């Protein structure tokens, strides 16, 4: 079953939006299989955002993601990566549609509330940065027959 990493970014934690962001993803039907409050150190931020290391915004991105507590979550389900990306909305809140997390809750590119993995391969890599295998739970939900066909 596909998994994806979600980070509720420091801006959203400061703004009291943890529950709002997690709830929006939860109610898609994806299963929450790991969750923790954490502070990302600079080395881990570099590893996580390695694809952006040569971008002009990289230092600002690392400064931001390490600036305060974040919530780290793993969601599981069919097409989990795409479902979360759709629920998040476009990277720049100027472009993210109303109804999406960024479209409704953000106005700045560098304060865009949420991270979600961009492919199943990225998700596996990113999840292994933040979670050990024993932190990812396997469990049944009685309602799954009403969510998964
Ligand atoms: P996403 O978070 O939608 O996967 P991304 O991986 O391209 O977007 O970039 C990671 C984060 O970096 C993004 O959430 C906000 C920031 N960012 C991206 N492009 C930027 C830019 N041109 N200027 C400033 N920050 C940017
Ligand atoms: Mg990305």
Automatic annotation (TrEMBL):
Catalysis performed (reactions): a 2'-deoxyribonucleoside 5'-diphosphate + ATP = a 2'-deoxyribonucleoside 5'-triphosphate + ADP; a ribonucleoside 5'-diphosphate + ATP = a ribonucleoside 5'-triphosphate + ADP
Single annotated GO MF: ATP binding
EC number assigned by the record: 2.7.4.6
CDD domains listed in its UniProt record: NDPk_I (cd04413)
GO biological process: CTP biosynthetic process; GTP biosynthetic process; UTP biosynthetic process
Gene Ontology cellular component terms for the protein in this record: cytoplasm
InterPro entries registered for this protein in UniProt: NDK-like_dom (IPR034907), NDK-like_dom_sf (IPR036850), Nucleoside_diP_kinase (IPR001564), Nucleoside_diP_kinase_AS (IPR023005)
Residue ranges occupied by any Nucleoside diphosphate kinase-like domain in the UniProt entry: 1-138
Keyword field: ATP-binding, Cytoplasm, Kinase, Magnesium, Metal-binding, Nucleotide metabolism, Nucleotide-binding, Phosphoprotein, Transferase
Essential cofactor(s): Mg(2+)
Main location group: cytoplasm
Binding site for ATP: 9, 57, 85, 91, 102, 112
Class of this enzyme: transferase
UniProt keyword Isomerase present: no
SUPFAM superfamilies, per database record: Nucleoside diphosphate kinase, NDK
Family of the protein in this entry: Belongs to the NDK family.
Function description: Major role in the synthesis of nucleoside triphosphates other than ATP. The ATP gamma phosphate is transferred to the NDP beta phosphate via a ping-pong mechanism, using a phosphorylated active-site intermediate.
Assembly, per entry: Homotetramer.
PANTHER family: NUCLEOSIDE DIPHOSPHATE KINASE
Name of the protein in its database record: Nucleoside diphosphate kinase
Gene name per UniProt: ndk
């Amino acid at each position: 079953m596909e998994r994806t990493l979600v980070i509720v970014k420091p801006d959203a934690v400061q703004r009291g939006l943890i529950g709002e962001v997690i709830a929006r993803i939860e109610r898609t039907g994806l299963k929450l299989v790991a969750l923790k409050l954490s502070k990302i150190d600079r080395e881990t931020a570099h590893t996580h955002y390695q694809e952006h290391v040569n971008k002009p915004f990289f230092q600002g991105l690392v400064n931001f993601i390490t600036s305060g507590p974040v919530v780290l979550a793993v969601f599981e389900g069919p097409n989990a990566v795409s479902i979360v990306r759709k629920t998040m909305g476009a990277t720049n809140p100027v472009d993210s549609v109303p109804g999406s997390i960024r479209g409704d809750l953000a106005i700045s590119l560098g304060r865009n509330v949420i991270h979600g993995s961009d492919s199943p391969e990225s998700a596996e890599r990113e999840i292994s940065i933040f979670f050990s295998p024993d932190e990812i739970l396997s469990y049944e939900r009685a309602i799954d027959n009403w969510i998964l066909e």
